[in-house]
Design brief:
single chain, mainly alpha, 73% helix, 0% strand, elongated
């Protein structure tokens, strides 16, 4: 048996990196999906509990009210955590990494060249940069709802004339994608 070549070592190392990264991404996809479901079930249970206690028992109003407010708080947390969007992001990352692994293991000639392996490693790096950019642009926690400026400027409902360059009430707001 011949000793492993540099090319075969790189192929094995890259395959291991792709498999490990896909496994971690799969774990996080599942975690976000489960967390989303748990938050929804807990919110629904709180709502049903508050309604049941308020309608069928003589539970004090402050207890029923405390339970009734929980679904709104849970919804706020769920919206800001973006669990389903993160689930999708991780699942797409798994698919991308598994696609690269498939090319490495089953679509290259035997033996592959070091350049072919390097090309797949480069595509993995580009995938990671693209995915990180998407995460930074869409999936970071949204703290703007807590700022005084963000809360008042959007909900003031003022009928005052808009500042130059801004739109007034009733005007179409442009959308940015």
């Amino acid at each position: 048996m011949e000793p492993p070549t540099e090319t075969s070592k790189r192929k094995v190392d890259l395959e291991r990196e792709l498999s490990n990264a896909a496994g971690r991404a799969y774990f996080w996809a599942q975690w976000n999906h489960i967390l989303s479901i748990v938050l929804m079930v807990v919110a629904l249970a709180c709502s049903v509990t508050a309604g049941t206690l308020g309608f069928f028992t003589k539970t004090p109003a402050n207890v029923v009210g405390g339970i009734a407010v929980l679904p709104a708080l849970i919804a706020f947390v769920a919206v800001n955590l973006k669990c389903e969007a993160k689930n999708s992001w991780h699942a797409r990352r798994v698919d991308g990494l598994n696609g690269l692994r498939s090319r490495l293991m089953f679509q290259l000639p035997e033996p592959p060249t070091i350049e072919q392996i390097a090309r797949i490693a480069n595509e993995r790096d580009m995938l990671e940069v693209k995915m990180q950019s998407e995460w930074d642009g869409n999936l970071l926690l949204n703290w703007s709802g807590f700022s005084h400026h963000g809360a008042t400027s959007r909900s003031s409902g003022s009928l005052a004339a808009p500042a130059p360059g801004q739109q007034g009430p009733g005007e179409d707001t442009p959308t940015h994608h």
